[in-house]
Amino acid sequence: MASWVLSECGLKPLPHIFxxxxxxINPSKARFLHSKKSxxxxxxxxxxxxxxxxxxxxxxxxxxxPLRVAPLEGEDEEERINGVNGIGNNKxxxxxxxxxxxPGAPPPFKLADIRAAIPKHCWVKDPWKSMxxxxxxxxxxxxxxxxxxxxxxWVVWPLYWAAQGTMFWALFVLxxxxxxxxxxxxxxxxxxxxxxxxxxxxxxxxxxRISHRTHHQNHGHVENDExxxxxxxxxxxxxxxxxxxxxxxxxxxxxxxxxxxxxRSPGKxxxxxxxxxxxxxxxxxKDVITSTVCWTAMAALLVGLSFVMGPMQLLKLYGVPYWxxxxxxxxxxx
Length: 334
Prior knowledge:
Pathway: Lipid metabolism; polyunsaturated fatty acid biosynthesis. Pfam families: DUF3474, FA_desaturase. By secondary structure, the chain is mostly helical. The protein has 13 helices and no strands. The longest helix has 25 residues. The two termini are 47 Å apart.
């Protein structure tokens, strides 16, 4: 707009009087730039322009704009945040200097800043409160199963599957917190509760915990992330048509988690059950063996229950909620 007015008035833009130097200036030489006058005290003379459109128009500026000068030492950061002399923001300055937002640049804060912003009471781990959640969820799981078995009605079964699958997911989340160490400060308690919860839904606790740690340490990394990461074109081209279909066509990716536990993601070798997998270091092999034994014991228990109540009843009580649980897991992660 300013360029248009100047061109219509036949005026040329004035040169910059105070070019910004690349280095700081002596603060003592910049004192004359500070003025106690208000904006309304500083006025420019009116300018009359030729042309019919501006006849009898007064183009004088009724307010003055502060000159952009090199800031004093220590003021550059404040100016960048609050704008020039505290007026406006730095959007126009960025456009003037040609700077653009860089999505690859590090954020203007650190992880310590985020941690400091969280209230202190959120960092307190209460094992009694954590155990109360475990007891509550386990009671709900058995109550739902008992009610569904008692009613044994095809109107009830779909409702049971949705509710029980969600409760299985709740058990997974509690075991997840054990794996992160947020359940309590007691490592042994976390390990025992994590094994009981995750084994009950056929997840190898330590195998998953270790790979999940790798996932968080390399989140979103195409090569180093453990799960839920985009595939490179090279790996994608090596997949057969069946794997591509099952991995990328809804709803199959939402049901793939048990297969991931056995064979990991495409392009990776090993298993969450195999202590010699490259997922683990030698010192973690005993933990992996312990989790695999617990998983095997739960699988054997389910086989025994299938002989007691019949495979169809076990499928309705446990099998379908099992898949609903992993649907929740995959859907939330995606």
